[in-house]
Each structure stands twice: as C-alpha cells, then as structure tokens.
Amino acid sequence: MVTSADLQTRWDNMLFGIRRSSRYHQCRRGFFDRIDRLSNIASLVLGSTAFVGVLQGPETKVLALWTSAVVALLGAANLVLGSAIRARDHSDFMRRYVELERRMLQPASEALLLSITADRLSIEADEPPVLHVLNCICHNDQLRADDGDADQYVPIGPLQRFFSPYFDICAHSLKKVADKTKT
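RESULT FIELD:
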C-alpha cells in the first residue's frame, strides 16, 4: 500500500532530480556556448591579423600565413567539436526538463508521477553520457537552492571542479557526506 508520505517523498525526489538535470544541461549549454564564442572571436581577430599582414607587404607574409593556419585549425576544431550544435542540444534537454518541472506544479498523484517518470526516462535515453563530477556539482547547487541538508552534499576537490566541464577526474570517489559516515 502506497502512503501519501511515500508518494510525497518520491514526488520531492523526482522534482529534485529534474531540477538538478535542468541545472546540468544549463551548465553544459553555457560551456559549449563559451567555446563557440571564443572560437569565433579568435577567428575574427586572427583573420583580421592575417588580412592586415597580407596588405602590409612581403615582410609580414609569414605572420599572415601563420595566423591563417591558426584560423583554419580553430575552424576545423570547432566544426569537429560541434560546440554550437551541442549547446543547442543541451538547451533542448534543459527545456524538456523545465517542461517536466512545470507539470509537477500540479498536485501530487501516483498517475502523474508515473507519467513524469516515463517522460524523464525518455529524455535520459536521448542524453549524451553524463559527466558525473559536473552532475554532483549541480546536485550540490540544487541542495543549496533548496536549503537542503549539509549531509547530502558531495565533496568535490578543486581539480575535479576545474576539469568538470571537460571530463571526470576520480568520479568513483564521489560519495555523499552521509554515505561516508556510514562506512
């Protein structure tokens, strides 16, 4: 038998997870937007430098060749990385999670929770692999936003935090403070 307290706990956990996922995709979108912007700015500056180098005469020809090569490499790297496309994808994921959160503004019910769970699973099936350290950072941020318990925070080292937008470092070591006190 499902109690209303059990339903409310599952509802709150689902809402927390949806908000954390929305934060995660917001972070990923921002990261890829910054990469795209920086690549475009660097291409503009270096392309202008190459253009001016060509106009200046033969003594700046080497500068023009090198800056042109760097512009080509930046363009190729940004094309391969697909930062603008990835930013758009994460924006779409965030929008889908916000839609789920909007649906959770209704009163809690078992049927609605099952429907939201199914929709969340379909979103997760479409998502790229998760960066676990960044996900834990978003977990901690959501706990702070909700005035959550300090024993639910996941300790994250400075190197883990620094590299979290790029890749996971020691993701296997991530545990909630409460989990560490049990062992």
